[in-house]
Design brief:
By secondary structure, this protein is of the alpha/beta class. The chain has one domain: Alpha-Beta Barrel (TIM Barrel). It binds cytidine-5'-monophosphate.
């Protein structure tokens, strides 16, 4: 199990920059990190990342790069220059793309961000996979992509908590599992498909939990974040 008391990555999916900055103001960089995804990065670019950095937050830049190896490797280097803590690429971009990214990030030495591979999006079910021409089960597909990511030198993968145990058993402890699709008991599932509660995700072997709307769209976001953070802390102290 990783030694990081801050396991919560808050998905900052806002269209209003001031709303996002106001939300960050209420949060504590010691208890969570912020995830900047395609919506906010497209709207506000590197400046937003710099503003979150200035507030003391480490950033997971969730742009899910997927392109030819040279383009993705250079995009990873640009993200590393920005000083992000974690970034990701699509594992379905293949070994050459991932290895080129790892090689580019090695130039940053100990300042290199963690490089994580997206396996199968948590919004996708078996039917969705089939429509894209993939007839294997989600579990088999995720495991295959996770093994490809590991042998390509990535630090870990994004997967649904439903596949976390399977990956842990096959790959071992020295590989980060980042799980979106986390829903506290009773909260709205939205467009996510393969969801799990924070405690169950940790028990299944997840290292970092990505949580967006259950916090950002809550009537009281700070309370929602504190409740989840407390449940993580109490689960971790029971597990140790
Ligand atoms: O609001 P919600 O908790 O569903 O947000 C989940 C976040 O995680 C979103 O920002 C989404 O883009 C991201 N994500 C995901 N599935 C993945 C990778 C990232 O839902 N496989």
């Amino acid at each position: 199990m990783i030694q990081d008391s801050s396991r919560l990555l808050i998905a900052m999916d806002f269209s209003d920059k001031n709303q996002a900055l106001a939300m960050a103001e209420t949060l504590d960089p010691k208890t969570c990190r912020l995830k900047v995804g395609k919506q906010m990065y497209t709207l506000f670019g590197p400046d937003l990342v710099k503003q979150f950095h200035a507030k003391g937050f480490e950033i997971f830049l969730d742009l899910k790069f997927h392109d030819i190896p040279n383009t993705v490797a250079k995009a990873c280097a640009a993200a590393a220059d920005l000083g992000v803590w974690m970034l990701n690429v699509h594992t379905s971009g293949g070994r050459k793309m991932m290895e080129a990214s790892v090689k580019e990030l090695q130039k940053f030495g100990t300042d290199a961000p963690l490089l994580i591979g997206v396996t199968v999006l948590t919004s996708m079910g078996t039917e969705d996979l089939l429509e894209t021409g993939i007839s294997s089960s989600i579990e088999a597909r995720v495991l295959m992509l996770a093994q490809l990511a590991q042998s390509s030198g990535l630090d870990g993968v994004v997967c649904s908590a439903h596949e976390a145990r399977l990956i842990r058993q096959a790959i071992g402890d020295d590989f980060l599992l980042v799980t979106p699709g986390i829903r506290p008991q009773g909260s709205d599932v939205g467009d996510q498909h393969r969801v799990m509660t924070p405690e169950k995700a940790l028990a299944a072997g997840a290292d970092y939990l990505v949580i967006g709307r259950p916090i950002t769209q809550a009537s009281d976001p700070l309370k929602a974040m504190c409740d989840i953070s407390d449940s993580i802390t109490s689960w971790l102290s029971n597990a140790n």
